[in-house]
Amino acid sequence: MRKQNKIVLWSVYFDSSKTRNEGRRVSKKLAVSSPKLEELQIAAKKLGLQSEAMFDSAHPSSPMRKTGLLIIPKTESKGKTLKNIAKALSSLR
Protein backbone atom coordinates (compact mmCIF):
# COMPACT_ATOMS: atom_id res chain seq x y z
CA MET A 1 0.00 0.00 0.00
CA ARG A 2 2.32 2.74 -1.25
CA LYS A 3 1.10 6.29 -0.72
CA GLN A 4 2.64 9.29 -2.41
CA ASN A 5 4.09 11.73 0.15
CA LYS A 6 2.54 9.76 3.02
CA ILE A 7 3.98 7.53 5.73
CA VAL A 8 2.12 4.48 7.02
CA LEU A 9 2.66 3.76 10.72
CA TRP A 10 1.75 0.49 12.41
CA SER A 11 1.65 0.17 16.21
CA VAL A 12 4.02 -2.82 15.99
CA TYR A 13 6.77 -0.36 14.94
CA PHE A 14 6.78 0.99 18.52
CA ASP A 15 6.05 -2.20 20.53
CA SER A 16 8.87 -3.07 22.95
CA SER A 17 7.70 -6.69 23.25
CA LYS A 18 8.39 -7.28 19.53
CA THR A 19 11.77 -7.98 17.97
CA ARG A 20 13.10 -6.24 14.89
CA ASN A 21 12.25 -9.39 12.91
CA GLU A 22 8.67 -9.18 14.17
CA GLY A 23 8.32 -5.62 12.90
CA ARG A 24 9.63 -3.21 15.54
CA ARG A 25 11.30 -0.24 13.83
CA VAL A 26 12.56 1.84 16.78
CA SER A 27 15.14 1.02 19.43
CA LYS A 28 14.12 -0.80 22.62
CA LYS A 29 14.95 2.37 24.55
CA LEU A 30 12.33 4.37 22.61
CA ALA A 31 9.75 1.59 22.29
CA VAL A 32 6.77 1.22 24.66
CA SER A 33 4.78 -1.83 25.65
CA SER A 34 1.60 -2.50 23.66
CA PRO A 35 1.06 0.92 22.04
CA LYS A 36 -2.51 1.70 20.98
CA LEU A 37 -3.48 3.41 17.74
CA GLU A 38 -5.14 6.22 19.72
CA GLU A 39 -1.82 6.89 21.48
CA LEU A 40 -0.07 7.10 18.12
CA GLN A 41 -2.66 9.64 16.97
CA ILE A 42 -2.08 11.76 20.08
CA ALA A 43 1.71 11.59 19.60
CA ALA A 44 1.38 12.62 15.94
CA LYS A 45 -0.93 15.48 16.89
CA LYS A 46 1.57 16.57 19.56
CA LEU A 47 4.17 16.88 16.77
CA GLY A 48 1.77 18.91 14.64
CA LEU A 49 1.09 16.15 12.11
CA GLN A 50 -2.34 15.55 10.61
CA SER A 51 -3.21 11.87 10.80
CA GLU A 52 -5.73 9.51 9.27
CA ALA A 53 -6.48 6.30 11.21
CA MET A 54 -7.69 3.02 9.73
CA PHE A 55 -8.80 0.88 12.67
CA ASP A 56 -9.70 -2.28 10.72
CA SER A 57 -6.27 -2.87 9.14
CA ALA A 58 -3.87 -5.66 10.11
CA HIS A 59 -0.09 -5.63 9.80
CA PRO A 60 1.03 -8.08 7.08
CA SER A 61 3.10 -10.14 9.53
CA SER A 62 0.07 -10.76 11.78
CA PRO A 63 -3.07 -10.71 9.60
CA MET A 64 -5.37 -11.94 12.39
CA ARG A 65 -4.62 -9.00 14.74
CA LYS A 66 -6.44 -5.91 13.51
CA THR A 67 -4.32 -3.27 15.22
CA GLY A 68 -4.99 -0.55 12.66
CA LEU A 69 -2.64 1.86 10.95
CA LEU A 70 -1.98 5.57 10.91
CA ILE A 71 -1.27 7.59 7.75
CA ILE A 72 0.61 10.86 8.17
CA PRO A 73 2.10 13.32 5.67
CA LYS A 74 5.78 12.86 4.85
CA THR A 75 7.65 15.90 6.14
CA GLU A 76 11.03 14.21 6.70
CA SER A 77 12.49 10.73 6.35
CA LYS A 78 10.48 7.83 7.74
CA GLY A 79 13.25 6.97 10.20
CA LYS A 80 13.33 10.47 11.68
CA THR A 81 9.54 10.57 11.85
CA LEU A 82 9.44 7.19 13.63
CA LYS A 83 12.03 8.36 16.16
CA ASN A 84 10.17 11.62 16.85
CA ILE A 85 6.83 9.85 17.30
CA ALA A 86 8.47 7.26 19.57
CA LYS A 87 9.86 10.05 21.76
CA ALA A 88 6.44 11.73 21.91
CA LEU A 89 4.79 8.38 22.64
CA SER A 90 7.13 7.60 25.53
CA SER A 91 6.56 11.07 26.99
CA LEU A 92 2.80 10.41 26.99
CA ARG A 93 3.28 7.46 29.32
TrEMBL record:
GO terms for cellular component: signal recognition particle. Belongs to the SRP19 family. PANTHER family: SIGNAL RECOGNITION PARTICLE 19 KD PROTEIN, SIGNAL RECOGNITION PARTICLE 19 KDA PROTEIN. It is found in: Cytoplasm. HAMAP family: SRP19. InterPro entries: Signal_recog_particle_SRP19, SRP19-like_sf, SRP19_arc-type. This is Signal recognition particle 19 kDa protein. Involved in targeting and insertion of nascent membrane proteins into the cytoplasmic membrane. Binds directly to 7S RNA and mediates binding of the 54 kDa subunit of the SRP. It comes from the Archaea. The gene is srp19. GO terms for biological process: SRP-dependent cotranslational protein targeting to membrane, signal sequence recognition. Coiled coil: none annotated. Keywords: Cytoplasm, Ribonucleoprotein, RNA-binding, Signal recognition particle. GO terms for molecular function: 7S RNA binding. SUPFAM superfamilies: SRP19 (SSF69695). Pfam families: SRP19. Part of the signal recognition particle protein translocation system, which is composed of SRP and FtsY. Archaeal SRP consists of a 7S RNA molecule of 300 nucleotides and two protein subunits: SRP54 and SRP19.
